[in-house]
Design a protein that fits this description.
The chain has 156 residues and is mainly beta. It contains 2 helices and 10 strands; from the N terminus they run αββββββββββα. The protein has a single domain, classed as Immunoglobulin-like (Sandwich), CATH 2.60.40. Bound molecules: copper (II) ion (CU).
Length: 156
Amino acid sequence: MKKSMTIAVVLFLAGCTTVQPAQEDLTVTKTIVSYVERATPGMMAAAYAAFDNRGEEDTLLEVSCDCADRVEIHHMVGQGDDRKMVVEPSFVVPANSQSAIEPPGLEWHLMLMDVKQPIPVGSEVEMTLLFQKAGPKTYRFKAVDGTRAAWDTYED
Ligand SMILES: [Cu+2]
């Protein structure tokens, strides 16, 4: 009895590997982070990402990195003297689109709060982006000095 149950479980797992992931339509194509020389208390860093979405609308819900206490989705709102940075709960990635949270981050940026360790130029940090439909996706973000130039000349 015990033996047949084991076989059933193995077959079930083997069957799973042939199932395609629910959604592979969404990929993150550019990933950079501003370098951090010294991880002093309260140190922040900005990160940017480009989204290639060949499927339906999805939503970036959460970003995490072992390198920071937390990562927030920041949005600049308002005009002139009223312009300020607010924390947003999510970032919508429209259906069938190319979109980006791109430098210099005057609209949106991902903000690493309380960075725990130096992130030297040329190094990489792993960050996990949690999407509502596509689920969690982990990418390596390259640390750069001069995010806009690095974005424009980005190579995998
Ligand atoms: Cu910010």
